[in-house]
Every structure is written in C-alpha cells, then in structure tokens.
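S.,

Sequence below, as promised.
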Amino acid sequence: MCAVQGCASGQGWARRPQACTKRGTAVVVNTALRTLWLCERGQPTKEYVVAIGTQGAGKTKEGDRRTPLGRYVLGAPRRSDEFFTFIPVGYPTAEQID
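The prediction came back faster than expected:
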C-alpha cells in the first residue's frame, strides 16, 4: 500500500494516482482526498472513499490518531462494526521503529 498525501490531483478518474505501479497490484491512498484506489498494471480499477486518522496524516508516534504515510504490507480485510471493513496496515516498518 502507498499512502501518500497529495499523490494525485483533479477530479474523478482524471485524478488517477501517480503511484499506481505498472506491474502487479497496488493499493494507493490519497489522504488529502480520502480516496483509495485499487490498481492493476498501472491503472486504477476501483475507487473508494476511506476514513483516515482523526488528526489527519503523518503519524509520528503510537496513539497520535494520525494515519501513517509510506509503503506498507496489508493484512487480510475483516468486518468491522465501526468501519464496515477494516484492513490492517503493517505499521510500523522495521525502519520506522526507534
């Protein structure tokens, strides 16, 4: 997954994420637009509205209520009473641990 603040601009499919990889499958989130794209071979195939941390993006410490930015491994989606569907994010990475 790539969560990038401001990774795209414009409206609708014209605001297609620049981070869609040309090979394989990717999940790209634009936190500023609160939009998630599923990408296949460089092209967005689905678009969803997503919730981010109540304090926005740019996580710096546990409990800061911010969404982390970067590339992360995703866990299996599961039902959530609070969020409908919850997808665990592999945060922090080894590089982000102090």
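DSSP finds no helices and seven strands in the chain.

Coffee later?
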